[in-house]
């Protein structure tokens, strides 16, 4: 095993282990069905385990499509489905590169960012005890690991080093947050610490769409934008924005609102400049 590959495995292990160990020791024993649910909505929780907010799915269906059901159950369900589909969007390109034995035009740098983002959101989901948040990010973590390892084996040494450095940077941010929570050095709750970290990493992840949009505005051509992916991203962000609003959770609502807005801007660019 090469030195870079050992560093890659070490970085991934550190990113994954530190926040989860910290959360395990700093999460109070509160039933998962009650986590992050506004007090006025707690009596309406479902018997199903996948709650976290809104009225119960079974009772909501029998009582009609109430706002609580739509925003507390249907919105995160649709967000989970769309989120997983978006995680899978690069899969054909990654598999094609694997068959060809070369990266070609495939950009591998978003893949380690996907790992860091998913780990941060898993940690946040564990803190607030919300399976709607945990589930899609567990899927995204494994998909990101596959993308990263596949692209790493096909990349030239300089790109491999960049992948490792990217993972190390995400790992350092998460490690500092985990250490702060574990030692109690910050006057902040674990929810606040991991919420801020998850939002920070997601905003970094959004830097790529912003760069693409800047290129479109400069060249006055939207050929580099995928309207279907942008539409999916806008809908996904809107669903999670609604769910974050239902939970009264700005750490869920705000970044997804930003993501929805960026994807709407991409759609507007496609409409204005064409492909």
UniProtKB/TrEMBL annotation:
Keywords: Membrane, Repeat, Signal, Sugar transport, Transmembrane, Transmembrane helix, Transport
Pfam families, A to Z: MtN3_slv
Location of the protein in the cell: Endomembrane system
GO CC terms of this entry: endomembrane system; membrane
A GO molecular-function annotation: sugar transmembrane transporter activity
Location, primary (coarse class): membrane
Listed transmembrane segments: 109-127, 133-155, 167-188, 194-216, 228-246, 252-273
Claim: Protein transport is one of the keywords in the record: no
Entry-linked InterPro entries: SWEET (IPR047664), SWEET_rpt (IPR004316)
Signal peptide residue numbers: 1-24
Membrane topology category: Multi-pass membrane protein
Family per similarity comment: Belongs to the SWEET sugar transporter family.
Protein name: Bidirectional sugar transporter SWEET
Source organism: Cryptomonas curvata
């Amino acid at each position: 095993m090469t030195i870079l590959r050992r560093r890659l495995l070490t970085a991934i292990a550190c990113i994954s282990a530190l926040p989860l160990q910290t959360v395990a020791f700093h999460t109070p024993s509160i039933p998962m069905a009650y986590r992050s649910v506004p007090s006025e909505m707690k009596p309406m929780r479902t018997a199903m385990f996948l709650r976290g907010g809104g009225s119960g799915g079974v009772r909501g269906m029998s009582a009609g499509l109430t706002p609580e059901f739509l925003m507390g159950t249907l919105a995160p369900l649709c967000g989970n489905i769309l989120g997983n589909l978006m995680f899978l969007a690069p899969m054909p390109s990654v598999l094609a590169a694997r068959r060809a034995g070369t990266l070609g035009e495939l950009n591998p740098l978003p893949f380690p960012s996907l790992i860091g983002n998913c780990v941060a959101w898993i940690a946040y989901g564990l803190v607030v005890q919300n399976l709607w948040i945990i589930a899609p990010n567990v899927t995204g973590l494994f998909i990101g690991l596959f993308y990263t390892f596949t692209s790493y084996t096909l990349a030239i040494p300089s790109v491999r080093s960049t992948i490792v450095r990217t993972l190390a940077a995400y790992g350092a941010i998460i490690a500092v947050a985990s250490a702060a929570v574990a030692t109690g050095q910050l006057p902040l709750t674990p929810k606040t610490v991991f919420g801020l970290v998850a939002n920070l990493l997601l905003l970094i992840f959004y830097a790529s769409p912003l760069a693409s949009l800047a290129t479109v505005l400069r060249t006055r051509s939207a050929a580099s934008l995928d309207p279907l992916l942008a539409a999916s991203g806008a809908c996904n962000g809107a669903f999670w924005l609604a769910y974050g609003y239902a939970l009264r959770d700005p750490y869920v609502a705000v970044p997804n609102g930003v993501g929805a807005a960026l994807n709407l801007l991409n759609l507007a660019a496609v409409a204005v400049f064409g492909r």
